[in-house]
Prior knowledge:
Blueprint: E1 5-9, H1 13-25, E2 29-33, H2 36-46, E3 50-54, H3 62-71, E4 80-85, H4 89-98, E5 102-106, H5 110-126, E6 135-137, E7 140-143, E8 148-151, E9 154-155, H6 160-170, E10 177-178, H7 179-186, H8 198-209, E11 216-219, E12 223-226
Parallel strand pairs: 1-2, 1-3, 3-4, 4-5
Antiparallel strand pairs: 6-7, 7-8, 8-9, 10-12, 11-12
Helix pairs in contact: 1-5, 2-3, 3-4, 6-7, 6-8
Amino acid sequence: MAHETVLVVDDEQDILELVAYNLSREGYRVTTAADGEEALEGARSQSPALIVLDLMLPGVDGLEVCRRLKADPRTQHIPIVMLTAKGEEADIVAGLELGADDYITKPFSPRVLVARLRAVLRRRARGQTDETSVIRIDDLVIHPGRHEVLVAGEPVDLTLTEFRILHVLARRPGWVFTRYRIVEATQGEDAVVTDRSVDVHIVSLRRKLGEYGACIETVRGVGYRFKDM
């Protein structure tokens, strides 16, 4: 059973109760907040393992809560999963660019919610991996130290930018990256990558990776992620 504390933030009491009930059944300790100020205080005082954050909050809205949490050294390490209404693509993108880790659209299945939160916590633990660690996914091997990618033992010829994009995505499987975050994470003095060019690099990467190209998934209206195997 899990014992991590999850802070659930929503101004709708029925949603708070639904999420809290289902997480408690899975062994999580659950605390709740009904507005942005309460969420900020709870995050700082409780240091939860994860925050479920509704974007539509009275007073300080969810995006501003996310921005403040990620700007505060005391709370910037806490994963945030956003709750959003359908059709809020712009808010989803904004939240991910502020540092949120995932999002779930309302209405949602409680079972799916619990599975997604468990996956985020698992990725957080796995994500402590050093940036120089070799990544192995079946016959795909990504070796950061050598700047080398192998598929079934055969080297794949990638440009520097393609390698950086692949490494950023594969190091955090399941995480959704906006184009802006990909640019931010891969930009270097000897790499030229822009928001508009990310799509072109992704197309090239998928082609060069062959069957493993399908591991790079498009999240419509948002960006890209590496399939969580």
